[in-house]
Amino acid sequence: xxxxxxxxxxxxxxxxxTTTPTDSTTTQTVQDLNLDQMFDVxxxxxxxxxxxxxxxxxxxxxxxxxxxxxxxxxxxxxxPAGFTIDINExxxxxYQEAEIKHGRVSMIAFLGLVFGEAFPIFFNGEIxxxxxxxxxxxxxxxxxxxxxxxxAIAMIEGQTIITAWQPLEETLKEPLGxxxxxxxxxxxxxxxxxxxxxxxxxxDLKQLKLKEINNGRLAMIGxxxxxxxxxxxx
Length: 234
Prior knowledge:
This protein has 234 residues and is mainly alpha-helical. It is 46% helix and 9% strand. The protein contains six helices and three strands; from the N terminus they run βββαααααα. It has helices spanning 35-46, 89-118, 134-141, 145-164, 168-172, 202-233, and strands at 2-6, 9-17, 26-33. A three-stranded antiparallel sheet has the order 1-2-3. β2 and β3 form a beta hairpin. α2 crosses α6 (202-233). The N and C termini lie far apart (72 Å).
C-alpha cells in the first residue's frame, strides 16, 4: 500500500492484480479515507512488525521505561514528575546511573550522620555537636581536610568517566555534543567488588541490585530528613 497526503484527506492507492488467462492488464483503485480510516491504516502499519521481534537497542525497537530494571513495590513504576516520558534508553541509563550513585552516597552519609554524633571519636573527640556542622569542624582542625575529600571524589569520578562514559570522539558526533554512557556500561557497575559479594547467577544479582536501589532511595529520604531536622532544631 502507498499512502499520500492531499490537503486534509488521505488517499490510499493499491494495485489490484486482475490478471486472467486471457487478460494480463493491471488496474489501480484509489480510495479516499476519512479520519477514522486513516488512523486504522496507521495502526495496522504500526503492528505489521511487532516491536518484540526487533532486537533491543536496534533501530525501530521501542524502549519502555516501565519494563526497565528498577521498578518494585509498593508503588511499582513510580514517576509522578514524568521524567521518563518520551525518553530513549540512553537518557534512562543516565537517570539510573545518577540514582544509584546518589543512593550509595546517601547510605554512606546516613551512617556518617548517625555514627558521627553517637561516637565522637575522630580528631581526639574534638568534633562534637550536630553532624551537619562536623565537616566544618574537621576542616578547621585540619585545613587540608576538604582537599583530601575532593581528591577522593575526583579519583572515583575520573575512573568512572574513563570506564563508563563514551569516548570523546563519539561525544563530538552527538547532535548536542552531550556525553552519554557507553553502550556496554551497566548503570552502577564500578567493577569494584573486593569482598566478592556479587552473585554468580543473574536472578540473585537482580535481587541484590534491587535491594541496593531501594535502600539507596530510602537513605536519600532519610538523609534529607536528618539534615532538615538538624537545621531546624540544631
